[in-house]
Amino acid sequence: MIDTFRRSMLDQQRAIAPGPRTPPWRLLLPNNNSPLDFLLTNQRTYGDVVRFEFFGNVVHLLVHPDAIKYVLQDNNRNYPKSETYNQMKSLLGNGLVTSEGNFWLKQRRLAQPAFHRQRIASFGTSMTDATERMLTQWQPIAERGESFDLSAEMMSLTMQIIAKTMFSADLSQESAAIGRDVSAAFTTWNALTEARIKLPEWLPTPNRHRFNTAMATLDKLMYRFINERRVSGDDPGDLLSMLMNARDEETGEGMSDQQLRDEVLTIFLAGHETTSNALTWTFYALSQHPEVERRLRVELAEVLGGRTPTMADLPNLKYTLMVLEESMRLYPPVWSIERRNLEDDRVGGYYIPAGSYIVLSQHVTHRHPAFWENPDVFDPERFTPERAATRPRFAYFPFGGGPRQCIGNNFALMEAQLILATVLQHYRLSLVPGHPVVPEPMITLGQRHGMYMTLAAV
After folding, report:
1. Coil, strand or helix: which one is 210?
2. What whole-number distance in Å separates Cα of residue 232 and Cα of residue 185?
3. How large is the C-alpha radius of gyration of the chain?
4. Neighbours of 343 (CB within 10 A)
5. CA 173, CA 139: separation in Å to the nearest integer?
6. Among 324, 210, 334, which residue's Cα sits nearest to residue 269?
7. Cα 122 from Cα 114, distance rounded (Å)
8. H/E element, 58
9. 3 state DSSP class of 335
10. Among residues 27, 91, 376, 435, which is most buried (max CB within 10 A)?
11. Residue 15: inside a domain, yes or no?
12. CA nearest neighbour of 392 among 372, 415, 413
């Protein structure tokens, strides 16, 4: 009887989570549902812990906010980043996004002062100046009634802002061309990593050639930032200066050029691409919800009265922030996070064997019906202080959480608020009728066909 009881307890401790029995090759067929639909459908079918098997690998989708908190915060040491982030090193190198352990911690501490709240407060003017330059360029487009790709415009704008604030560099004349290289790098990297048959990196396939060409251009730009700073000897106290002046506590040596490149490129790409997507989706959501846009314009008129917003205005632009938060709930710029557990564990009552791939999806958790009423509806009122206080902390995690929470979260929110408030005081953006709006889940959540809009002055 004792042995039976022990076996029963062991079986409970090793309870296997439910999940689909779909053969993994079926998930790779052309025209299969996107990863977004696949994850959401399986959560709604099997619950908050879903188990998959892909070619011998065990994968667990964890959806409940308590599980998100457990993996990212409470037991984060058992859940380092998965091999997917090693694949990203061909794009980002060994920077803050991809590095691990003590090396990551040291680099994070070096970069953290550049994102201190008081420091980023000084960036507001740079953000609105760049936005107003963009609006000047929009004027003839509006007068001619032409359509344009808003996603490309937001990419160019946020790129100029990150270059100016973090590296004291002016990319106003180059951002459009660089933006095309960034898009090419992300698109081809995604195609190469998602390919069913992995070909050697030395094989000159069209995608590999486009990726290498785009990366060569971005490398040239990063080294230009570094070399121009060295030649000038200037020290404006920006992130680039902090990284270049940093010295190892034991050896007294500075970072190698390769490590400087990796950190600069990581901040450059992560610091503008996610905010660009967040803004593009927000303008799209507003174009589909005129009643929300009307209320937002009322707030802007009452708080700003037509003038350019400043950092001091942000506490009074409460509805503006709520609109952005709701947009990032439905269209999270980072739509999933991966980890891999070092030791056996139990989450949500289920056994998670060591070496499992762990998927935490903002796209899924942000639509959990237990925490979000009518989860597919765009409703900024969800983010009133009263309603937000009723939800678990990790029911909403657009910037991740725990020690690896995005270093630029406050920077991104400030930037997005200022841009949104500046643009909407000048123009109303409308989606081109019939334009297909299809989320493109790559490293971030982009738009497969761009986001073509027309402008009307207000």
Report:
1. helix
2. 30
3. 23
4. 12
5. 18
6. 334
7. 11
8. strand 57-62
9. coil
10. 91
11. no
12. 372
In this structure, are residues 162 and 271 in contact, taking their beta carbons and an 8 Å threshold? yes
> What is the token pair recorded at 264?
């600069």
Q: Helix (H, G, I), strand (E, B), or coil: what is residue 250?
A: coil
pLDDT at residue 5, as a whole number: 43
Q: Counting runs of H as helices and runs of E as strands, what totals does the chain give?
A: 18, 11
* Phi, psi of 453, rounded to the nearest 5 degrees: -130, 160
| Inside any domain, residue 18 | no
- E strand intervals along 219-370: 337-340, 345-347, 350-352, 357-360
Query: Could you tell me the two tokens for 138?
Result: 């929009």
Least Cα distance to 297 among 133, 129, 422 occurs for 422
Tally of domains in the chain: 1
Residue 73 within any structural domain of the chain: yes
Instruction: Measure the CA–CA gap between 425 and 457, rounded to whole angstroms.
Output: 9
Full residue range of the structural domain in which residue 345 is found: 28-457
- What's the pTM value of the predicted model, to 2 decimals? 0.93
Which residues, in sequence order, are bridge partners of residue 345?
A: 352
How many other C-beta atoms can be found within 10 angstroms of the C-beta atom of residue 185?
22
Contact 317, 303 (CB under 8 A): yes
Q: Give the chain's residues under pLDDT 50.
A: 1-2, 4-10, 28-31
Residues 6+ apart with CB under 8 A from 356: 58, 59, 60, 340, 341
Q: For the chain, what's the residue count?
A: 458
Residue 244 buriedness (CB in 10 A; 0-12 / 13-18 / 19+): middle
Q: Any idea what the CATH number is for the domain that residue 418 is in?
A: 1.10.630.10
Tokens found for residue 66:
């308590």
For residues 183 and 155, the answer to whether their CB atoms sit within 8 Å is yes
Give the Å distances, CA to CA, from 30 to 26, 27, 138, 189.
9, 9, 39, 19
SS3 track for 18-51: CCCCCCHHHHHCCCCCCHHHHHHHHHHHHCCEEE
Tokens of 202: 């030395």
- Taking residue 253's Cβ as centre, other Cβ atoms within 10 Å add up to 9
Look at residue 280 and tell me if it is in a domain: yes
